[in-house]
């Protein structure tokens, strides 16, 4: 599964490089704070890199949250298992 992900990542990178090599014209770009003249290849690379970084950041945070939740639940299960084992060993009081 990791190999497929790495291959897709390399493929996306190569596609970005190919698009950048074919698009050397200068474009006018308006963004929130200002505006500027950029080469289309540079603009594509920056947007791709920013999207990639944001995607990894969001997925990383969700993964970390899931791992923390799983660790907390495992701890709770182990505690309950110890209590159950203790109750099974102790004789019933009447």
TrEMBL record:
<keyword id="KW-0997">Cell inner membrane</keyword>
<keyword id="KW-0812">Transmembrane</keyword>
<feature type="transmembrane region" description="Helical">
    <location>
        <begin position="44"/>
        <end position="64"/>
    </location>
</feature>
<feature type="domain" description="Lipopolysaccharide assembly protein A">
    <location>
        <begin position="22"/>
        <end position="85"/>
    </location>
</feature>
<comment type="similarity">
    <text>Belongs to the LapA family.</text>
</comment>
<dbReference type="Pfam" id="PF06305">
    <property type="entry name" value="LapA_dom"/>
</dbReference>
<dbReference type="InterPro" id="IPR010445">
    <property type="entry name" value="LapA_dom"/>
</dbReference>
<dbReference type="GO" id="GO:0008653">
    <property type="term" value="P:lipopolysaccharide metabolic process"/>
</dbReference>
<protein>
    <recommendedName>
        <fullName>Probable lipopolysaccharide assembly protein A</fullName>
    </recommendedName>
</protein>
<dbReference type="GO" id="GO:0005886">
    <property type="term" value="C:plasma membrane"/>
</dbReference>
<dbReference type="InterPro" id="IPR032906">
    <property type="entry name" value="LapA"/>
</dbReference>
<keyword id="KW-1133">Transmembrane helix</keyword>
<keyword id="KW-0472">Membrane</keyword>
<keyword id="KW-1003">Cell membrane</keyword>
<comment type="function">
    <text>Involved in the assembly of lipopolysaccharide (LPS).</text>
</comment>
């Amino acid at each position: 599964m990791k190999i497929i992900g790495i291959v897709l990542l390399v493929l996306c990178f190569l596609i970005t490089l190919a698009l950048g090599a074919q698009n050397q014209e200068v474009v006018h770009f308006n963004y929130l704070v200002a505006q500027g003249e950029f080469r289309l290849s540079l603009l594509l690379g920056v947007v791709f890199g920013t999207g990639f970084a944001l995607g990894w950041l969001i997925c990383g945070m969700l993964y970390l949250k899931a791992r923390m939740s799983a660790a907390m639940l495992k701890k709770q299960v182990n505690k309950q298992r110890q209590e159950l084992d203790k109750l099974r060993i102790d004789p019933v009081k009447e």
